[in-house]
Amino acid sequence: MKIMRWFSLAALIGVLAIPGVEAAESTGQERAEAAGKGLVGSPAPRMVVKTIDGDTIDLGALYGKKAVYLKFWATWCVPCREQMPHFEHTYESAGPDLAVIAINAGFDDSVEEIQKYRRTLGITMPIVRDDGALGAAFNLRVTPQHIVIGRDGRIQYVGHLADARLDAALLSARQPGPAGAMAASAPAPTESSRVDVGDLLPALSVSTLEGKSIALRTPASRRLTVLVFLSPWCESYLATTRPAISESCRRTRLQVGALAQDPRVRWIGIASGLWASAEDLRKYREDYKVRIPLTLDESGALFRTFRITDVPTVLIADAQGKLIRRFVPDERESLHKAIDVL
Length: 342
What we know:
It is a single chain. By secondary structure, the protein is an alpha/beta fold. It has 2 domains: 10-173, 3-Layer(aba) Sandwich (Glutaredoxin); 205-341, Glutaredoxin (3-Layer(aba) Sandwich), CATH 3.40.30.10. It is 32% helix and 20% strand. It contains 12 helices and 14 strands. A 5-stranded mixed beta sheet has the order 5-4-3-6-7. The longest helix is centred in the C-terminal third of the chain and has 17 residues, at 243-259.
């Protein structure tokens, strides 16, 4: 049913279950504000995006003409759903001086899920499914994450809650600035090289939770390298909103645990930085007795490099560092079987 009215959500959002935390209101807002420290006041990047309906939106062309409100969200995110009435109301009442765009984070979400969600909630604003580029440009750390860009093309606000601070930022962003106050153009972020099956692992090193440096590619190793892309809250938080994904995360963790001491394999667990800190990852390791080395991909750079949009995802590279498999362990093909075949 279509969302018909806006209502205050600040008190409600404060008690929602958020991945890895209980105090959703303070922690979510704090994480969003921390993400925005290097953004607020800076020129917004000029990027061209495409909606799930195939329409093209040139963000750079909007700067100087309209304020822009980007909201990062996900279909599995409880506070995102609770904030949708506020979001839809903002879009419906925007007028000619405010562009409102929904940015699906592209994390464990398909276009089909997004379309179903849109029909269920009656969402009418344009929806973009991010490929990681927008998340990188705007330091995505939580869902929802609000980005408010003023008419001068500068980022004015980054937050998490649908509250008075967001409303004030939206009002302020729509005010015309003094003549000549348009921010200098900020170029779109450059696309980093992507690694696909058949490519060599990049010559990069990652730092584990203990501060140990591990190279992704070690040609002299004579062992397979298995990269396990994960989220520390997948099993717990998605148990109700995405039970199939939650079970997949559990199954993969158990299979990795059973093979953690296999001498044929060099393991690296790579955790998404969305809704996760190093402390959250340590707790995950302790709670589930995870024995493989873990690193936090706080900025999402590794997820983007390997085109990872879903967890769990497992990548297997041969002894020379060539990527030869990408898959999700399931009932038909276990991780053990995949390694045995290789």
